[in-house]
């Protein structure tokens, strides 16, 4: 069974608003790392929220087509249930973090599942270790850097042990060393069987992906092997959009 199936997905934030996602179809096999790219505002975060069930359950709007996560139609399952299948890390981690310490943040979701105390403690230790943030366990997430906050937000979803991770611009705010660490973590998670969809603008981040998807104004315009699509995309950026570089201060490249 495919980990993710998106079938003719279209979406408007309000029933009368403009269409943000337009007839998108793609599949992700278990264990794949897929990168999603596109200019700012093309709908990447909106698509991530569809994968996590935030759309339509929390944001409403009008969704046509189907999103299946491990065979489960996101329209038919509650977000809390979907979170056991798919861990969504938002572009802005501040929307996700609220506990007084890093370890409380990571323990929150498994505690909510009423798992035994020892099991929660083991999960917290494992997640801190996997992400290399054990030294931050007693720190208040508000006092962390943007990159560290993203790691904690990722830890909070990993604690539910979902088989799929959807990471919306996880490494955009990291320095080169931080980016390398995250890439190693993602490759390691894949080795342990996770399926990962990353939204990134950074060629280095995309390089770990098996496949690359390109969104343009809500349409999926490319889906293929990373090296081939990357070359095509960089040429599009230069020639169609007139961009000199792929990233501009950590954000999507726009015409210069
Ligand atoms: N809650 C919302 N209500 C209405 N429109 C929204 C909402 N969130 C996003 N949009 C609009 O949907 C479009 C796609 O936004 P989205 O955030 O998905 O793009 P993105 O590709 O993630 O951009 P970026 O690279 O800047 O993060 C934009 O035009 C945005 O203004
Ligand atoms: Mg976004």
Features:
Rossmann fold, 35% helix, six-stranded mixed β-sheet, 256 residues, four-stranded antiparallel β-sheet, 2 domains, 9 helices, binds adenosine-5'-triphosphate, single chain, binds magnesium ion
- Roughly how many Å is the radius of gyration? 18 Å
Question: How many domains make up the 3D coordinates?
Answer: 2
Q: How many beta-strand segments?
A: 12
Task: Tell me, briefly, the overall form.
Answer: globular
Overall structural class, as computed from helix and strand content, comes to alpha/beta
Kindly estimate the percentage of residues that lie in beta strands according to DSSP: 25-35%
- Assign the CATH architecture of the largest domain: 3-Layer(aba) Sandwich
Taking the sheet with the most strands, its summary is: 6 strands, mixed
Q: What do the pLDDT scores average to?
A: 91
Run of helices and strands: EEEHHEEHEHHHEHEHEEHEE
CATH classification, class level of the largest domain: Alpha Beta
In the CATH hierarchy, the third-tier topology of the largest domain is known as Rossmann fold
Can you give the helix content as a percent range?
25-40%
In short:
The protein is built from nine helices and twelve strands. With 256 residues, the protein is of the alpha/beta class. The strands form three sheets. The chain has a six-stranded mixed beta sheet, with helices on both faces. The protein has a four-stranded antiparallel beta sheet with strand order 2-1-4-5, covered by helices on one side.
